[in-house]
Design goal:
Layout (H helix, E strand, L loop, with lengths): L2 E4 L21 H13 L7 H12 L4 H11 L3 H8 L13 E6 L2 H5 L2 H12 L5 E3 L4 E6 L11 E3 L2 E3 L4 H13 L19 H12 L15
Parallel strand pairs: 2-4
Antiparallel strand pairs: 1-3, 2-5, 3-4, 5-6
Helix pairs in contact: 1-2, 1-8, 2-3, 3-4, 6-7
Bound molecules: FE2/S2 (inorganic) cluster.
Length: 225
């Protein structure tokens, strides 16, 4: 199986959406959630990262039209959205596979066979780190410490931990993922939590009620989109 795409290509500008004008990429429910998120912050642009995660949870990655719409929503240039998103490993500005497999090769995992596990993962998946297979089923990444050193050598799939792994358990994991046997455990890439966060939104609403008529940050001119 030949790799088709790099998970992180070198040309940031090639990912920038061309042209100008309004973009409507989000569906109505995503747009509603986006506006709800923006309302939490006194400055719209502070919602940039949460909006990137929201878009990635819908599409599995941050596509150019999503970045353009986010830029419009928070009042920045699309290049600022790309510049911010490309800084973070958790955000993917190129299309990735349904499963993003991140194998840790940092010190604890390295000492317990992390590099050998990564080499085995390359062989099993038929792709090199930073690449996605032709079916967009898997993306393979080499990761720094995943903060699960007690499970070394370990890996994450779409942010869910697996370890300690050896070649046999890794292959069994990939088989289960291919068959959908772990769909209850591993959500589609981009989904951080299946439980919607509402604590912050409730707090924001409470602040708004308490601050009605006053000049607290909840009623600031920049915070209500
Ligand atoms: S070194 Fe691999 S999880 Fe910490």
């Amino acid at each position: 199986m030949a790799p088709t795409t790099s998970a992180r290509g070198p040309d940031e500008h090639s990912r920038m959406p061309a042209g100008s004008g309004s973009v409507q990429h989000f569906d109505s429910e995503t747009r509603r959630k986006a506006e709800e998120l923006i309302s939490v912050y006194p400055e719209k642009r502070s919602a940039l990262l949460p909006l990137c995660h929201l878009a990635q949870s819908v599409d599995g990655w941050l596509c150019p039209d999503a970045m353009r719409e986010i830029a419009e929503l928070v009042g920045v240039l699309p290049a600022e959205v790309l510049g911010t998103a490309s800084f973070y490993d958790l955000l993917h500005t190129e299309k990735v596979g349904h499963h993003v497999v991140s194998v840790c090769t940092n010190i604890a995992c390295l000492l317990r066979g992390g590099e050998e596990l990564l080499a085995h993962a390359e062989s099993t998946l038929g792709i090199s780190p930073g690449s996605t297979d032709a079916e967009h089923a898997f993306t393979l990444e080499e990761a720094e410490c995943l903060a699960a050193c007690d499970r070394a050598p370990c890996a994450q799939v779409n942010g869910r931990f697996f370890g300690p792994l050896d070649p046999g358990t890794f292959d069994a994991l990939i088989d289960d993922l291919r068959k959908g046997a772990l769909d209850d455990v591993v959500p589609p890439h981009g989904v951080i939590s299946r439980v919607a966060r509402d604590v912050g939104l409730e707090a924001s609403s409470a602040n708004e009620r308490e601050g009605a008529g006053s000049s607290d940050i909840g009623s600031g001119s920049g915070g209500r989109g």
